[in-house]
């Protein structure tokens, strides 16, 4: 017995790498954030239980990334690999931290579980939406070390 909740996860095919166009590298051209750019920030986050990325496990998917650059909003829906995943809050926190660290501060970042994909969806979403709970979690040295481990390859 391995002790993992999902000892044999399904591994999905990754999206092809995006080609960066010359205009995107030109600092003189205003480049709006789009869903693919935000997805590229989170796709390589490590799963806390497996030596795989969230993209490998289909926890994050391009179709569940919404970006409104004009309104400064980013919304990510993620799908835990199993309905009783005890790591769901940690995964959501890792996604949120990655985006808060990577995007300009003008963006409001919402991270939530894809509807109907987790037994404790409401409770996890409530924790991830609560600024004070997220801030308190990030002050916990053990928890931030685990989050940083998840972000180490991203």
Short description:
Helices cover 36% and strands 10% of the residues.
How would you describe this protein?
This protein has six helices and three strands; from the N terminus they run ααββαβααα. With 154 residues, the chain is of the alpha+beta class. Strand 1 and strand 2 (73-78) form a beta hairpin. Helix 3 (88-102) runs parallel beside helix 4 and helix 3 (88-102) packs across helix 6. It is globular.
Characteristics of this structure?
6 helices, GMP Synthetase, Chain A, domain 3, 154 residues, alpha+beta
Strand order of the largest sheet: 1-2-3
Architecture, CATH level 2? Answer: 2-Layer Sandwich
Number of strands: 3
Q: What's the SSE pattern?
A: HHEEHEHHH
Q: Shape, please?
A: globular
Radius of gyration: 16 Å
Strand content: 5-15%
**What class would the helix/strand composition place it in?**
alpha+beta
Q: Assign the CATH topology.
A: GMP Synthetase, Chain A, domain 3
Largest sheet features? 3 strands, mixed
The CATH fourth-level homologous superfamily:
Fe-S cluster assembly (FSCA)
Q: Number of helical runs?
A: 6
Distance between the termini: 30 Å
Spans of at least 5 consecutive residues whose pLDDT stays below 50 are: none
CATH class descriptor: Alpha Beta
Looking at the chains present, what oligomeric state does this protein adopt? Answer: single chain
Number of domains: 1
Q: Helix amount, in percent?
A: 25-40%
Mean pLDDT: 90
